[in-house]
Amino acid sequence: MAGNEIHVGAAADIAVGEATVLPMGATGHWDDIAVFHTEDGGFHAIDDSCTHGDISLAEGELEGLEIECWLHGSRFCLTDGKPQCLPATEPVGVHRVEVRDGEVYLTIVDRKQG
Ligand code: FES
């Protein structure tokens, strides 16, 4: 394990189309972090709170590389964090995820508060 990596868990434990949430107490980040396993086989990590309201994006609907907030329907791109439609206008923070030997590791790269 290198640098400031955080061990998320085994890749096989996060089903495709699902997310696991790392609570802020476990990472030291200002927000919980959601790690998604997308249908292309990739893993993506973003700040879990919708920038429009205090809603967990991990509980939303994953479509391709976008996560839809279940409350008002804003969709966020998992690769750049930008909202794709209203009502959210601010991006969520995006973090780095690597998979090695079947294990998922997170590096927090965007510390600004959304
Ligand atoms: S709380 Fe997420 S779009 Fe309104």
From TrEMBL:
Q: Ranges for the Rieske domain? A: 6-106
Question: Which InterPro entries is this protein grouped with?
Answer: Rieske_2Fe-2S, Rieske_2Fe-2S_sf
Q: Which UniProt keywords apply?
A: 2Fe-2S, Iron, Iron-sulfur, Metal-binding
Keyword Metal-binding part of the UniProt annotation? yes
Q: Name one GO molecular function term.
A: oxidoreductase activity, acting on paired donors, with incorporation or reduction of molecular oxygen
The UniProt record lists the keyword Metal-binding: yes
- SUPFAM superfamilies referenced in this protein's UniProt entry, alphabetically: ISP domain (SSF50022)
Q: Which residues form a coiled coil?
A: none
Report what the protein is called. Answer: 2Fe-2S ferredoxin
Originating organism: Micrococcus lylae
